Amino acid sequence: MQDRRIVVVRPDRLTPADHKTWREIRTESAAPANPFLDPAFTVAVGRVRPGARVAVLLQDGTAVGYFPHEKGPLDRGRAIGLGVSDSQGAVLRPGIRPDARRLLRACGLSSWEFDNLEDGQQPFTPHAAERLASPVVDLDEGFARYRERLRARSAGFLRQTLAKERRLARQVGEVRFVFDAKDPHALRALMRWKSAQYRRTGRRDRFAQDWITGLVGLLADGGEPECRGVLSVLYAAGRPVAAHFGLRSRTVLSWWFPAYDPDHGRYSPGSVLQLRMLEAAAADGIRLVDLGSGPARYKDTLRTRQLQVYEGAVVRPGPGGALHLLSREPARAARRFVRDRPLLASAAARTLAELGRLHRP
Q: What is the CATH number of the domain that holds 232?
């Protein structure tokens, strides 16, 4: 008879052997090597989120799975890094399929919320409230092949972007791109531009949350090959005009925080940055760029296909689970109602932008 048990630890208590086993399990799966599901991301979140935990699933004393999560008030749980993590779930050896509610009970959780659950997470997908499209860019055939496909599908976008890059060089100054920049000034500029964009569009400013800025700082300084921050910067006349901070493994780059200087908006520096990034990423061994779920025109233009991710929650009977349903499900239902009606969604976006304008200092 097999001995099966679950041990819950803080992320910094994971051993080097745990990191090795975790990554071996990910390699065994057919899933992309998304850096958000690497142990280094969980450890980094653990340094800025005191409720971060990892359930280690043991079978005859050997680790066969890892379930990273965060534990909050009333034992309410959430995916590790919820709000900024673009790929979530458990890391399980083939054939290991724990019951979701029993797993939560072992973790002392009344619920577990997710909004970017990776496809194939069989213990959790039955609890999903909705399925979302997550566009990706395939670069396994190289950038030249991708550019041919982009030209065939969006010739106007490619032509206009290249023309604006030339205009930027003529009117502002020499254009230079760095794929993996070590430039703290550019990172601060990116955060400043992104905060202004959040406020301008009436959305919550993520960089106003200390744990997110702290997490970005940790990942920017990290050196793990399977999960490290990459700051890509487009310069004009020696000054940053667009930048992106994302996470990468050896083969996957996750699109995370893009922004540009609005003073140079007429040159579409964000689009120039995107093309330059894709070219440099392909040359540096990236085979897949995950653009993340959520609607955006540029994602529709750049993508080659779409993955599926899921949003929802596992809820156990009891006061904590009931509180989760009362506090989260009405808002999720409202978002789904708006998202499924394009005219209403457009009106909501305009309203958010107007509110953001009114609240700008």
A: 3.40.630
